[in-house]
Amino acid sequence: MDHFDECSVLLPSATLEDFPSHAAEPDARGLLAAWSVLWHPLLIAGSQQLPSWYRADAPPTPDGPRLVIVPRLSQSILPSDFQRKCETNPDCKWVEGESRQQLAEAIGLSSQEALDQTSPLEFEGRSLAVEDFYAIGFLSLQIQIMTRRLRYTSNLDELHLQTKVLEAAEAFIARDAAKTAESLHDVFDALAEERDHYFTSDPHLIDLTLLTPSVLGKAIEGGWLEQFADEACLADEDRGKQGTPRNVLIDGNVAKAIQDAGQDPGYQKFLDLLQQPAIGWAGGGAAERDSSQPSAPAASCLDAMTMAAARADLEQGLQLASDAIKQRPTVMGRLQGVTPADLVPTLAELGYQGVIPIDFVAGVGFGDESKVIASGSGAEIEALTAKPIDAASESAFLTLGARLGEAIDSGEVATGLFVHWPQSVCDSFSDFVRAATWCVALGKFWTLPDYFTDGEKPYHHGSLATLSSGSPTVVAQSIQGSSANQSLHAAAAGFAKRVQTETQRTGRSVLSIAVPTLLDDADESLELADVACQAMKATPVEPSAATSALLFNPHAAARRDQLELGKGGPAKESYIYAASASKEHAGRCDVTVDVPAYGMSIVNATASLPRDGLLTKLKGGKPGIVRGKALQNRFLVASIDPDTGGISGVFSAARGNRLSMQLAVGGGKSKESGGGTMVASQVKVLRSTQVVGEIQSKGTLRDDDHQDVAEFELVYRLRRGSRLLEIEGSFTPLKKGAEVAAAQLWNDYVAMRVAVAGEAAVFRPLVRDKVHTSNQRKLVAPLGVLIDEAEKQTLICSGGLPMHRKVGERFLDTILGFPVADQDGASASVDFRVGLAFDAPAPIAVSRGFIAGSESIPVQLDSAKNQQAWLMHVSAPDVLVVDADVQRRRDGKLAARLLLVRSRSTTSKVNLQFAAHAMAAFVADQAGIDRDLAELPEDVTCEDGVVSLTLGAHQCTDLVVVFDV
Question: Does the model's pTM come out above 0.85?
């Protein structure tokens, strides 16, 4: 190798303060390699001085033995004749290269002689190598940039530093391990002292390896475990070695793969490593669902679930991780999907000490500070919200030290979160880790559990995202393919099934509180209608023979339902909204009945059949719901456009035209134009009675190029006394089947497009049984969207369809399907059912009721008396019991476990009353329903059978109520 008096690099900056912060990956790699390769011990020992740097636009005269490295970033600003001057000097070596390996080969550092001179030395459990000198170069650069960027005065004794680096290099070449180690300690101590002059706290460093099932399998086969075990170590204070613990992210899919691997030796070795104190891990996400049975998005998309389902998802993920790893995770983390703020209490209940709420796939979920206290619904948990640093990207390390210094300077818990795949890191990260074994100048590495338990505590509160910006992508990825329409509606059906199951369970529990014998007598397989009959000692009969009806409402809002009685009408009661002789079934009575929330109404035909008066008959009878081409009742008028078959306007009282509606195709445009047109071939009246009106429209849907895209059929239905306009329909794509990519699904679709009159409307998605605010244009909300305008609200009930898109400022598209027929041979027709509710007082309850409905049962009763009663009363209209279970405690007392959800972002005091006398109530803990009642917390009170508590914004509470029965 040639001898050089000076080794220098030409930088594309005037000062180190101007050192590039951002650069393309090849440029960043070449720049950092050019700096660090000059710290090779052979070059330092040969030149007897530290490497130097110069401005590329003002380089020194290249005379004498000189090594000049020119990064690609610097080449464009060099003086035009500088390279020629270097080449005319036979002792000057001009070197270019895009990596450290290329530069080392060009300099001659990769020759066998050089390798023999610098082979690693072992000393007191540490391997001393060339990489330690590269680490000095990297650390020196970062400390200098940090000092200058933050406007501090350097206190570094450069002469002392040079002396110690020279001693280390010469000792290393002389193969004196002890002297090399001693000198290296002095070098790193000097650099650490320089940083300590202006920062006394050490940044926290987290090395997090990301995994997927396939990546883990390949890594095990490729020998990663051995490397991983060698790199992960704890601090050895006696030998002056700092620890470099490692962490892995084990989401649900990886945990499932580990579980499925059984006793495979490779996976068993991985599990053994996870028991080591130098290796931490985070997990707790649920595994993906079977994509061959698309009853829900394949990935665990919490925004596409009910609140009860989201909680169950977290519980299942925790159990899966615990079973697979043989230890309980203390830090929650997922590869894909953020952790919403309203689930923070659930994480705290499950025993997590910290959470990483970051979606590593979508690159969202991080915050302005690195570590914060995440609070939600009265609970708190520490959250690692540092922006992930790609440990495989050199560009991320250009000014890493300055960024960590700025974080310390701002008063936050400075944290570097380095993420990468197995065996995939850049040279600078390796230098960074190597430096961290000698000193904590740039920080200290932690395991995730220790980071949250022993690391510096945050004192700033941070707000986690409530809705994930990555959810639209997750949902689209689970639907894409050759059967996109089928997958979309299977997902909607899966969500609807979940709501129906929760409703059935809640209704059964409410009935069991009122009639405790149902716990023993009622068959678990019975439908809710049968359980209600058993509770009221009623016998179900055929509708044609019914003179009585039992209506049971398991929802949080009162409902207005329709039924038919024979042999007369009901006596007048306050909850009988209207009764009229049936126009479709002679001798029978159509009755519209109000049913209280979590209650029931019993209606009997004890009065004569209502009949029209003489004057009404002379006028042709009372008008039906359909008036011309409009549907009309007391609350609204919906006008159907005879040319398009859409809704030209909905009018309600003095509030004017509320909205219009049409089917749209090929949406996703930022402007309100586009969406195609509907061309009706037929608009006709199907039914028009005093109870219900139906108008059907058929036609063709055309795109903006006037090409036929699909044939449609819509049925609009409005019932007496209802604020809900129901829309059932189908469309048949005319385009042959094809693969539909995820990226297309949000831009090429068939949707119900609702247009409101004003541009000030706020579109609030209903997610996890709560009304949220979002500025996103793509919304995942299976329950629907609330359009909030001044003094009026319109609810889009999507019946489980999760995809909505805001178009312009006035349009909302609810995606019904895609204009391409599925390829799997299924029916080309795409059926759907959606609803528009106007000024609904409890939007979540109305939307859940649109899916699950209530029970209307023709029965035979011993008593012919009309009755109405609530079985459970919740005082706050925006608080829902979305799931419930009733069991006996070990002491024999009846206990109900209720999942309460505050659907609005305000705090509310709530009183609950029941058909049975409540004697105690408390928030559920690990003891479940069997908690000792002697000393209960005061956050829930129970006096005179009334349970009282306060629910915060969007709070979800698992409440246990014990009854004296």
Answer: yes
